[in-house]
Amino acid sequence: xxxxxxxxxxxxxxxxxxxxxxxxxxxxxxxxxxxxxxxxxxxxxxxxxxxxxxxxxxxxxxxxxxxxxxxxxxxxxxxxxxxxxxxxxxxxxxxxxxxxxxxxxxxxxxxxxxxxxxxxxxxxxxxxxxxxxxxxxxxxxxxxxxxxxxxxxxxxxxxxxxxxxxxxxxxxxxxxxxxxxxxxxxxxxxxxxxxxxxxxxxxxxxxxxxxxxxxxxxxxxxxxxxxxxxxxxxxxxxxxxxxxxx
Length: 246
Ligand code: SF4
Hints:
Blueprint: H1 3-8, H2 15-32, E1 37-41, H3 45-56, E2 62-66, H4 73-86, E3 91-93, H5 97-107, H6 116-135, E4 140-142, E5 159-161, E6 167-169, H7 177-187, E7 243-245
Helix pairs in contact: 3-7, 5-6
Bound molecules: iron/sulfur cluster.
């Protein structure tokens, strides 16, 4: 039995309603942005639930991930597993190799540990730049963000406009961690085995650690930094991120 399922998977009041709402939101998003919408998956538990909902309802939403060059082997191994499980293709977007090499030559392999500025520069290079290309030509994207994940995410809307005016959909915004694992157990959704080793939030290898019982959900991300700095810029939550409807 999976430890993550054993610890977390519990039916919580209103679960069926949240599943139905998430599926309906994805259906609307796919219709409104037909042929121009993508799920950007981190391959974490929430994103696997979103992928399952999309596949289960046969929705025309593409699937893309940011291959930063620093993903855990377990995360990389999940890509062919989910492709085989759902019969889908996962687009892999990477930073240009020459720019990555130049950054490492100039700042070192573990530049992200030297300062917040260098950590953010690494995220900009390995995440933000590939994300911009993944979204180029698309009018909407889907995320696995949940309000419960952290303070900065406490007001994540179901749908909003990002800083470029694209639709941004977060169908699990009101889901609990228990909802996520209840869904995974119920539908036998494939997931990253690192979740069984106390990694609730999984990012790049040098920037993610396991968390202890009672620690915050994102305590294992950039744990050497102040809480206020702990976002990579993918989801800035700036004032122009307006909720456009519930
Ligand atoms: Fe670089 Fe760490 Fe950001 Fe990954 S999470 S892009 S390794 S700083």
